Amino acid sequence: MADINSLIKHLARPREVYFLMVAYLFSLGFDRELSLAKIEDGLIKQLLIAANTFLANLTSLGHPLNSLFLLATVYLVIRGLTGRSDRLGKDILAIFLSVCWIVELMSINLLLLAPIKDPKVLLLELLLFLPIITVSFTWWYWRLNYRSSIDGNPEVEQITFKAPSSILNYFYLSVDALLKYQPSYASFNTKRAKLLHLFHAIIKINLLGLTLGRAVSLATSS
């Protein structure tokens, strides 16, 4: 039993990379499930094709960019398993995935405005996008406080929680931010933390507002 626990702890060392890869897997699904054939021709479809082509270059197996990403991921996992951290490498990985979800956010907005032949396309893409945005902001919230610790000011955390310190706090915060603007158990103590939370709230309002508008449009046209 002790050997098993030791093995599990050893394999869990690169957990930050594993966590970020969840966003990648959903990004992969987002790109694959976007059926452009179910969208009527027009300017919006052309913009979606451009966004989808960009995402395909980043997520298609065999493409140089995707191959480089996967090789870098394997490298980071191996570094983590051997007990050597690569902070810059993991930051670059997270920035790469952030670029992906920004393009996906643009695609979601275009889908919400596009004349769609099958409304289920919109619902499926939204369901795939929500885990991506949740994982991404979980990491960004955590990274702000990690930066405070490496800058030599661990006592001045940019985000503080009433609950005992735990990585799960950042996940709960990311999920809760989709439901309400100001969670009662978290405090944003710096301008950078407040701006990040505001950006998260704007994305939430953007998604929910346009989704509601599109839902009303579909209901009235049916």
Tell how many strands the DSSP assignment holds: 2
Please state roughly what percent of the residues sit in beta strands, choosing from under 5%, 5-15%, 15-25%, 25-35%, 35-45% or over 45%. Answer: under 5%
Please give the largest β-sheet. 2 strands, antiparallel
- From the alpha carbons, calculate the radius of gyration and give it in angstroms: 19 Å
Query: How many domain units?
Result: 1
Low-confidence stretches: none
Distance between the termini: 60 Å
Global outline: globular
Helices and strands: which structural class? mainly alpha
Give the proportion of residues in helices. Answer: over 70%
Task: Please report the number of helical segments.
Answer: 8
The main sheet orders its strands as: 1-2
What does this protein structure show overall?
Helix content is 73%, strand content 3%. A two-stranded antiparallel sheet has the order 1-2. The protein has 222 residues and is an all-alpha fold. It has one domain (2-221). It is built from eight helices and two strands. The radius of gyration is 19 Å and the shape is globular. Helix 2 (15-33) runs antiparallel to helix 6, helix 5 (87-113) packs parallel to helix 8 (191-221) and helix 6 (120-150) crosses helix 7 (167-176). It starts with a helix and ends with a helix. The relative contact order is 0.11.
